[in-house]
Amino acid sequence: MMKLFRLHWRLQRATPASAVVVVRNSDGRVLLLSQPSGTFQLPRKELDGRIDITHQVADWLNDLLARPTAMSLVSLEGSCGDVTLLYTVEVDTPSGTEQAARWLSPDIALTGLGAEDVRLLRLCVGEAR
């Protein structure tokens, strides 16, 4: 019975999860990343369930923004099969080092994103409908 419990616990920790971050600058614009298809999306990272999530997200944001940032967890979305952690980060000014990135006002960003990113962005900018 104990072996079965341990196996179940390990499988739960390995649940597929991703982090999405809404990065806003001092002008209120949000960071979108370009995809090979030519579309844009909110920054997203697949997480490893065996490694501390906070450290993974912090390291990813340091790489993405090329400077330390403070993050806030806004929401935990999904179920055991697929979990999305939604974070927000505010930066004073864009560093200019973000590759394939655009800074757009939230209103403009909402028109060019997929349905899931639109919903997540609305949660962060207070426009949930």
What is this structure, in a nutshell?
It is built from 4 helices and 7 strands.
Helices, strands, pairings?
Blueprint lengths: L1 H12 L3 E8 L5 E5 L5 E2 L2 E4 L5 H13 L5 E9 L2 E9 L10 E4 L1 H7 L2 H11 L4
Parallel strand pairs: 1-6
Antiparallel strand pairs: 1-4, 2-3, 2-7, 5-6
Helix pairs in contact: 3-4
Provide keyphrases for this structure.
Nucleoside Triphosphate Pyrophosphohydrolase, 4-stranded mixed beta sheet, alpha+beta, 129 residues, 3-stranded antiparallel beta sheet, 4 helices
Give a verbal description of the structure.
It is a single chain. The protein is α+β, with helices and mostly antiparallel strands and 129 residues long. The protein is built from 4 helices and 7 strands. It has a 4-stranded mixed beta sheet. It has a 3-stranded antiparallel beta sheet with strand order 3-2-7. It is globular, with a radius of gyration of 16 Å.
Sequence of secondary-structure elements: HEEEEHEEEHH
CATH class: Alpha Beta
Query: What low-confidence regions span 5 or more consecutive residues with pLDDT below 50?
Result: none
**Beta-strand content bin:** 25-35%
Total beta-strand segments: 7
* Average pLDDT rating: 80
* Helix/strand structural class: alpha+beta
Judging by the overall fold, what is the CATH architecture?
Alpha-Beta Complex
